[in-house]
From TrEMBL:
GO CC, alphabetical: protein-DNA complex
Sequence similarity: Belongs to the LysR transcriptional regulatory family.
Record's keyword terms, sorted: DNA-binding, Transcription, Transcription regulation
Residue span(s) of domain HTH lysR-type: 4-61
Organism: Amycolatopsis taiwanensis
Record carries keyword Transcription regulation: yes
The name this protein goes by in its record: LysR family transcriptional regulator
Length: 301
């Protein structure tokens, strides 16, 4: 490969995802000028531009699109091969930080126990991550992997095992008209504001947690937005809006007398998924995903 530098490839892959030199530099922990330097070196090595740059936007050239399509799977295979060799040489050790949203699912805690049994040299720390920022802690390397609510469409993250298929419930104040009902339909949501998630999270993810329309196309009023589950539950108890939650989270918080959890018919089920960084993701995270998969009864994927 003529002395090809892996750092140049990583810079191109991250830039292709971000389409912004500054954000690419932040993810790679280098300056914006260093990203430009790495890209220029790669383009010189190839002999043609891979990225089109103007004062307002960054985009891939047609050659850059083809190069990305071939490079991504090759880079992933190369990374997996190197990490597998590292694991075989030194074993899995150190500290694995696993984030979770809402509640620590029983399956998660069981997988952690099995992982520590299989890898006694590695300790797992569990970290709660904000409802409104499912992917930020992973990108900032505050956690190595995280269990988050689906959907996940982030190109820089790997979506591993998917589990915990759950029907949705609607959290409402005990004073709300729905509180006395055995269930509500998705179309009933048009009559009450839904508490949403702060815009730190991507739009597609926020819309999945608090849809703007019923399946029939009727608008759903937007309620206040929150950063944490506890904020949402407090606003629900104050009758400031209703909040969609999976059944297991509802059952965990069902001790609150001020909130009633009503099953919702006609909405897609909720899922959880384990995610980690695609580039520079720790081998411990991949090993944990393997344990997660093998420990999971009735796997959904």
């Amino acid at each position: 490969m003529g002395g090809l530098e892996i750092r140049e490839l990583e810079a191109f892959l991250v830039l292709a995802e971000e389409l912004h030199f500054g954000r690419a530099g932040e993810r790679l922990y280098v300056s914006q000028s260093r990203v430009s330097q790495l890209l220029r070196s790669l383009e010189h090595r190839i002999g043609a531009p891979l990225v089109a740059r103007t004062s307002r936007r960054v985009s891939l050239t047609p050659l850059g699109e083809r190069f990305l399509a071939g490079l991504r799977p090759a880079y992933d295979r190369l990374s997996a091969t190197v990490e597998a060799a590292q694991d075989a040489a030194r074993g899995i050790g150190g500290v694995l930080r696993v984030g979770f949203q809402c509640t620590a699912h029983d399956y998660l805690t069981g997988a952690i126990a099995l992982f520590e049994q299989r890898h006694p040299g590695c300790t797992v720390e569990i970290v709660e991550i904000p409802l409104a920022d499912p992917f930020g802690p992973i990108r900032r390397r505050e956690v190595d992997a995280a269990v988050v609510l689906l959907p996940v469409e982030e190109q820089d993250l790997v979506l591993g095992p998917v589990f915990s298929r759950q029907p949705l419930t609607l959290a409402v104040s005990a004073r709300h008209p729905f509180a006395s009902r055995a269930s509500v339909t998705a179309e009933d949501l048009a009559g009450t504001p839904l508490i949403g998630v702060h815009d730190v999270a991507p739009t597609y993810w926020r819309r999945a947690q608090a849809p703007s329309h019923t399946p029939g196309g009727v608008p759903i009023p937007a309620g206040p937005v929150v950063k944490t589950l506890q904020e949402g539950l407090s606003l629900t108890a104050a009758d400031r809006g209703a909040m969609l939650l999976c059944r297991s989270t509802a059952e965990y918080h069902d001790r609150r007398r001020s909130i009633v959890f009503v099953p919702v018919e006609g909405l897609p089920d909720s899922f959880l998924g384990l995610v980690w960084r695609r580039i520079h993701g720790p081998s411990r995270a991949r090993a944990f995903a393997e344990t997660f998969t093998s420990a999971r009864p009735g796997a959904e994927s």
